[in-house]
Amino acid sequence: MGEVRGDEDGIRPALPRGPQVVRPRPRALHLPRGPHHAGARQRQPPRGLMADSLREITPADHTQGPDDARITAVQYGDFECPWALQVHQIVKEMREAFPDDFRFIFRHFPLRYHPHALIAAIAAEAVGRENGEEAFWAYHDRLYANPSALRRDLLPQHAEALGFDPEPIHRAIEEEEGKTEVLAQKRGGVRAGVRSTLALFIDGELFQDDEVEDAVIERIIQPLKA
C-alpha cells in the first residue's frame, strides 16, 4: 500500500519492484451516510497513533475549510500513488459533505519509486506560488484526476488547461524550484510516523492502511452526523 521505510533518503517500496510483482489496485470505499450503518456498529474502534511530532499547521500549509472546523485532517500525499488517490477521494467526499465542519491540509510525500511524483509536487507548488492558493487546489485536483499523465512535459500543459501561464511552471520544473520545501514536507511526514501513502491524520492521530476506512467513519462521519 505504498509503504515506506526509513528516512527521506531511505524511502523505498515495501515489496520488490519488477515485472513479477503485480501492484494491487485500490478498492473503492463505500462510506456510510450516517452513524447507524450496521457495518459501523460491528467494527472495532480504530486505534491510531498520536503523532506528537506532527508539524503544526501554519499559513504556509495548503488548507481547505474553516480554521474553526470541528475536525481537521492532514494528508501526506503523492500524486502518482493509487493509495494516495484513494485518500484524496475520501477527503473530497468529506469536504463536500461537511464544508463547515471539516478542515483539510495537504502536504507532499513523493515516493522515490514513483518517477514523476517529485516533479509533479514541484509543479503544483509553482502553480500555487504564481497564481494563489485556489490555483494550487485546482491543479492538485487535476493531477489526481490524471495520475497517468504526470510526465514533466505534460505538467505545464495541465496548468495551461486550467487557464494559467505554463512558462513559470516549465521553468520551475527545469530548475527544480521548490524541491527543498517539498522534501522538507516529506521528511516531516516520516518524523510524524507516516509509513504508507494510504494514511490520514485526524485531529493529530495517525491512521494508516486498513485503519483509514474505520477511522473516517468513526472519527469524522459519525461525530459530524450526530
Describe the 3D structure.
- With 226 residues, the chain is of the alpha+beta class.
- The chain is 42% helix and 12% strand.
- The protein is built from eight helices and six strands.
- The chain has helices spanning 38-42, 82-97, 117-131, 133-145, 155-161, 166-175, 179-191, 211-225, and strands at residues 49-50, 62-64, 71-77, 102-108, 199-202, 205-208.
- Helix 3 runs antiparallel to helix 4, helix 3 (117-131) crosses helix 6 and helix 5 (155-161) runs antiparallel to helix 6 (166-175).
- It is globular.
- The chain starts with 37 loop residues before the first helix and ends with a helix.
Quick structural summary:
Helices cover 42% and strands 12% of the residues.
